Amino acid sequence: MREWVKDAILSTVLIIISIATYFVSKDYPDIASHFPVRLALVLGALSVGLLIKAVFITRVKETEKIQDLSSLKNVFIVVFGIALYTISLRYLGYLISSFCLLLFLISFLGFTRKLHLIITTFGCVMVVYVAFKMILGVPLPLGLFFQG
Q1: With helix as H, strand as E and coil as C, how does the chain read?
Q2: Count of C-beta atoms within a 10 Å radius of residue 8
Q3: Does pTM top 0.85 for this prediction?
Q4: What sign does the CA torsion over 123, 129, 130, 132 have?
Q5: CA Rg value for the chain
Q6: What is the band of 70 on the pLDDT scale with cuts at 50, 70, 90?
Q7: What's the mean pLDDT in 69-87?
Q8: What is the Cα–Cα distance from 20 to 31, expressed in whole angstroms?
Q9: Are 51 and 87 in contact (CB under 8 A)?
């Protein structure tokens, strides 16, 4: 089934749900009805937006679209990198494993300046380390090699 058809069906179902929610929640007492009514209105508006996008934008783009398998290969490479990260986290600990993962992911996305790549990766890892370890007091994995 084409993507725009799936989106159109989904948006139609969501519009029906939002209309039903709106009419059911209108019978609630005044204060209790505010949140469900607003939620139904937001859901309805977003569903109408999805329907418009599905019919007028996605349908036109799908006729021009050619299947590209290189993106599927990239997904498997990233998933493999994350799987390797989860395995290495136990042995190398948070700091080294996260540094290697971010270094891989950022360079995989096409960032080529080596010095900026290392500084950005180190900064991101240290910000998360300080936030979790120092501020929140959450223990991060040290790794088997660094426990003593």
Answers
A1: CCHHHHHHHHHHHHHHHHHHHHHHHCCCCCCCCHHHHHHHHHHHHHHHHHHHHHHHHHHHHHHHCCCCCHHHHHHHHHHHHHHHHHHHHHHHHHHHHHHHHHHHHHHHCCCCCHHHHHHHHHHHHHHHHHHHHHHCCCCCCCCCCCCC
A2: 19
A3: no
A4: positive
A5: 24
A6: low
A7: 86
A8: 19
A9: no
